[in-house]
Amino acid sequence: MSFHQGAPTPHNEAKPGDFAKTVLMPGDPLRAKYIAETYLENATCVNQVRGMLAYTGQYKGCPVSIMGSGMGIPSMGIYSYELYAFYGVENIIRIGTAGAASDEIEMMDVILADRSYSTSDYAQIQSGFTGNCLPASPELNAIITETSKSTDLHLVTGAVSSGGVFYREEMQRKPEPYMKEVKALEMESFALFANAKALGKKGACLVTVTDNKRTGELLTPEQRKTHLGKMFTLALESAIRM
Predict the structure, then answer these.
(1) Residue 79 in contact with residue 11, Cβ under 8 Å?
(2) Angle at 224 between CA 116 and CA 110, to 5 degrees
(3) Is the pTM of this model over 0.90?
């Protein structure tokens, strides 16, 4: 289904073998740079095309890659598809930020998505999937859940909503029925899970709650980049068990 036969791609200059089998994907490429430089040993930048930075190094002696996904379903759709299809990547963990969607969710809670709802037509156009909900990989989620038992973070497992629009005009809207189940709002997991399903790969999504529209709480961009260490550590510790 691709016009491209292998790596590099139009969006990624990395060579075959440059990526580890497990890739962590924050949305912000500068966050990818920060994580690589802070947590990895011998980190090497393997992609700079369009500023979407990617690094491969070692965490506790195991190879791990980190690459930005960009913002939104289309961007995640391109980068995760290429990693799976052209670079031999088996596992991708999205590590991002999200807004609280439930009264039980507090700022800085970490949400492990077990499923992603969306009104996006990405999966239908990409592979013919007509539903509005896609699951995370149960194998990856089991590893992440087990790994989290050795941390002190508050991990909440549940549904997320993967939206296609960040700014919405004020108007009357009928809430989607699935919103009653949703813990957090983000914008990338649906594309990741769709690509994993289509290609027989594994995908997971960890997000830290960094804003709450009901209370007006909001982390600054600098805080978003540097204050998410517990989630980064959980993802890295999980990655070396995959």
Answers:
(1) yes
(2) 40
(3) yes
**108: which DSSP letter?**
T
E runs forming strands in 29-130: 41-47, 54-59, 62-67, 91-100, 110-117
- What is the DSSP code (8-state) at residue 53? -
152 is catalytic: no
Q: Residues of the chain with pLDDT > 70: what percent?
A: 97
Alpha carbon 52 to its chain centroid, in Å, reads 14
Q: Which helix (H) or strand (E) holds 135?
A: strand 133-135
Element (H, E) at 229: helix 229-239
Catalytic residue (one of 103, 109, 114, 211): 211
First-residue to last-residue Cα distance in the chain: 28
Contact between 159 and 117 (Cβ < 8 Å): yes
Model confidence pLDDT, tens digit, residues 2-11? 445 577 999 9
B/e letters for 54-81, b = 16+ CB within 10 Å, e = fewer, are: bbbbebeeebbbbbbbbebbebbbbbbb
Is the torsion defined by CA of 132, 84, 98, 169 positive or negative?
negative
Centroid of chain to Cα 95:
5
